Amino acid sequence: MKQQARPAAYLTITAFTRLGSISILSILLLLVIIIATGTGAMHISPAQVVAILLERAGIRLPVAYPEHMVAVLWMIRLPRVILAVLIGAGLGISGAALQGLFRNPLADPALIGVSAGASLTAVVLIVLQPWLHFAGGNMWQSYLQNIITFAGAMITVWTVFRMSVYGNRAVISIMLLCGIAINALCGAFTGLMTFIADNEQLRNITFWTLGSLGGASWQTVLAVLPFVGLPVLLLPGMAPALNVFALGEQEAMHSGVKVNKLKTQLIIYATMAVAAGVAVAGIISFIGLVVPHITRQFTGPDHRVLIPCSALAGALLLTVADLICRTIIAPAELPVGIITAITGTPFFIWLILKDKRVIAV
């Protein structure tokens, strides 16, 4: 009787922990979205934010607000906040998935060349843009650069993945080494393009590599949504397989996990989420690396809890970081990548020092 009761109790506690963690993070994210949407040069109270949002759903609240406040919220504030939520969720969930795939808490999406490939492609486009006007004015500015940057990241990751295949399966250690080599190569060519760029192009390159959500619009939100939404929906379903994979590839294969399929799907989904964010917002560092660490401190290593919570925590962290960067020196604005690096680096160092005995083992 005791042997039967123990698994049932364990499953109940696990389900409660998962539901509780997701619920708390969801509530915090909703509160941060309301606060971030109302904060700026024109202050919008939380009650007004809720009233304006609910009005579009046909629900009217007894809260007064001027019409121009509605325009500011819908056309400027809300797209930026939603874009921060999407990109943060994509970076967080990709970091958690890749750390599970590599079975290494220090892994992040940059290891497989996503950021390096996207950076190289974007820098090439910035430098060559004077000769590419035939691509079409505003359409070029709005869409083509994002599409080509995304394609560059995908091609880089595909190259790393194909180089790591041995005996019809991807070898993780080779993938890491190939990722380091491709990152160095992309960095060299990025430096070359930076060297031949003029002053205006150098400024654009610098601001792009620092990361920014300043160009957010509903067009960019809709462009990113499918590429982030699909991984956020599908990666949690792979959590049980990742839990088994943590025991080792051979053990996972003996347990019925299709290891090669798991690796391929994880890399594709993680690349989709990260590359889409990099294409529209530039390089935003440390979210994919630090967020799974922070989440793991509260949820434990179970990927069924860790993966969805990392998505919520990533969205929460990037939304807060973007709120800080556009208000701390207002009316000027800091690149959001600076804020994430300044806050993420000390915290990550603290985690390493705290867990260095475990990492050394």
TrEMBL record:
Mode of membrane association: Multi-pass membrane protein
Location(s), subcellular: Cell membrane
Biological processes per GO annotation: siderophore-iron import into cell
Keywords: Cell membrane, Membrane, Transmembrane, Transmembrane helix, Transport
Entry-linked SUPFAM superfamilies: ABC transporter involved in vitamin B12 uptake, BtuC
InterPro entries for the chain: ABC_BtuC-like, ABC_transptr_permease_BtuC
Gene Ontology MF terms in the entry: transmembrane transporter activity
Residue intervals passing through the bilayer: 21-44, 78-98, 110-131, 143-161, 173-197, 217-245, 266-293, 305-325, 332-353
Broad class of where this protein is predominantly found: membrane
GO terms under cellular component: plasma membrane
Similarity section: Belongs to the binding-protein-dependent transport system permease family. FecCD subfamily.
The name this protein goes by in its record: Iron ABC transporter permease
Organism the protein comes from: Chitinophaga agrisoli
